[in-house]
Amino acid sequence: MTNRLVLSGTVCRTPLRKVSPSGIPHCQFVLEHRSVQEEAGFHRQAWCQMPVIVSGHENQAITHSITVGSSITVQGFISCYKAKNGLSKMVLHAEQIELIDSGD
Q1: Which long-range contacts (CB under 8 A, 24 or more apart) does 57-63 make?
Q2: What Pfam families does the database record attribute to this sequence?
């Protein structure tokens, strides 16, 4: 089964960094995406806020460069988890992160 997602956007919540009891570092943040997409010959506004989690030592160096307002592209897979309120929430598990140069 294929489960791949590539999403570009702007970090809209302060990254939360934690280390699990087993010593695995995690970084969580929310990525906001806004674009215009074509569907059935019409242009449509696309918008979402996607929770992202980055786990493991491999990507932790780049997570320290991520702040609110950072423009990034994230590649990974999606999964659901049950929130404290009992509702299912989708999250993007990042496997690759690229900072987008703002051109400044």
Answers
A1: 57/24, 57/25, 59/27, 59/94, 59/95, 59/96, 59/97, 60/25, 60/27, 62/97, 62/99, 63/15, 63/17, 63/27, 63/97
A2: SSB_1 (PF22657)
